[in-house]
Amino acid sequence: MATQTQTQTTTPDAPSKVVGSIATRASYEPLSRNNALDAHEHHSVTPHIGEEFPNVQLSSLLRSPDADKLIADLAVLVSERGVAFFRAQDLSLEDQKTLGRKLGELSGKPAESGLHIHPTTHAGAKKGDEISVISSETFDSYSANDRSLLASEGWHSDITFEPVPSDYAILKVHTSPETGGDTLWASAYEAYSRLSPTFREFLEGKKAVHEAKFFERVAQARGHTLRDEVRGHPANAGAELSAVHPIVRVNPVTGWKGLYVNPAFTRRILGVTRDESDLLLNHLYALVSRNHDLQVRFNWTTYSPESGLGDIAIWDNRSTFHTATQDYGRTLRVGDRVVSLGEKPYYSKDGKERRAALGLGPAAAERNLGQIALQLHGVKIAE
Ligand SMILES: [Fe+2]
């Protein structure tokens, strides 16, 4: 387990913030958009999560004279909107890695945080250490018989078992079925907003253990060994694959609070009994999987293999969850993913609720509209 020493850092114009002593940022002041991207058409896919750019080639963005300004704006936009979609992209693997690095660098990530090497990536893999090949061919049979058939079990944020987990991820799917294989994302900010103030107060500051020892069996099933060397940050090393993180996390780019637990990697909330931990985690997972109004679903376009094209999704792993949809039988679905590492997750009471920051009003107010509708139909609502 990662050792966690807490330190207090103070900046002249910001209140004191408690952050981890490893992988700290130079600044914890939220960033604003520079709006450079507004020269390109884009629109919200849903009110709470997802932004689509119908006419942008990311390869051109990278080569623009204003590349750094555009990518800095993209980083803030992705952190605010959770995930951004780009159709028919010709981005090369090298450019995908460059973009992955720059998103974090231009939004203030710690200097020592690089691109992640996944513990199951084969040493000597054709595409290199920093590309995770997401393929239906490597879906592992080691646990197939014991897998839940509830698709909602798949919700996760990438690599939360690492002491220094991901800020941004970029996935290009170049081979996809004619129908099916969609990916869904959910907003961790909005899931947090669905908690009452009383329950938020109870949860904030508490921590949970994240763990992924099962990857050792995955590596074995693929005929190689787990990568126990440094995986993109000096703190991410060894075969233990576990870390302790706050269950409410502040995204430093937006300054907004979000839930940071997921059924794939979170094992236990600390400071409560096993039963209480299960109860709490199940409720938090339900907020993500049962609220389709904080999710966005993306269908990957099918391209010919010769085109080199693929749709691309870029998301902020600090403040979103995602899950694939395995509804396409034995059809091939393959993509290349780059996962960038950010800062050590932290909680700060100075973090904001996204809805309050955007002046949206509480989530419960939207639910109360249902009560008004009932009253309009003559149904009396008890006080
Ligand atoms: Fe993932």
From TrEMBL:
InterPro entries: AtsK-like (IPR051323), TauD-like_sf (IPR042098), TauD/TfdA-like (IPR003819). Keywords: Dioxygenase, Iron, Metal-binding, Oxidoreductase. Residues 1-21 are annotated as: Disordered. GO terms for cellular component: cytoplasm. SUPFAM superfamilies: Clavaminate synthase-like. Residues 44-330 form the TauD/TfdA-like domain. One of its GO terms (molecular function) is 2-oxoglutarate-dependent dioxygenase activity. Residues 1-11 have a biased composition (Low complexity). It holds the Pfam family TauD. Belongs to the TfdA dioxygenase family. This is TauD/TfdA-like domain-containing protein. It comes from Trichosporon asahii var. asahii (strain CBS 8904).
